[in-house]
Amino acid sequence: MRDVEDRTWVGEFEQLWMEVLGVDTVDDDDDFFDLGGHSLSALRLSTLIRQELNLAVMFGHVLENPRFADLRDVAGQVPLDKPVAEAV
């Protein structure tokens, strides 16, 4: 697991969230589904997080944690999707 103090991924996480939902800003209390998200966009978000940030955020994580701050907390606790040596 990565160092939880390393929060450099948080800004990129926020950008991915906004890109998938087509919004300009996001707040901690924003709900993925209230902002127009659906199952396919949840799948897209989880895939992008794994590909771009190498965090093992799965589709179910998005469905079970639709609030931005909650999913961000989950992302901070999950392991890397691939070991660092493979994630190039």
Layout: helices, strands, pairs:
Blueprint: H1 9-21, H2 39-53, H3 59-64, H4 68-77
Helix pairs in contact: 1-2
Shape: globular
Number of helices: 4
* Rg on CA atoms, Å: 12 Å
**Unreliable parts:** none
* Counted beta strands: 0
Strand coverage percent: under 5%
Largest sheet: none
Helix share of residues?
40-55%
Mean pLDDT: 90
Element-by-element helix/strand order: HHHH
What class would the helix/strand composition place it in?
mainly alpha
Kindly report how far apart the N and C termini lie. 17 Å
Can you put this structure into words, describing what you see?
It is built from four helices and no strands. The chain has helices at 9-21, 39-53, 59-64, 68-77. The model has no long low-confidence stretch (mean pLDDT 90). The two termini are 17 Å apart. Helix 1 (9-21) packs antiparallel against helix 2 (39-53). It is globular, with a radius of gyration of 12 Å. The chain is mainly α and 88 residues long.
Question: What is the gist of this entry?
Answer:
With 88 residues, the protein is mainly α. 50% of the residues lie in helices and 0% in strands.
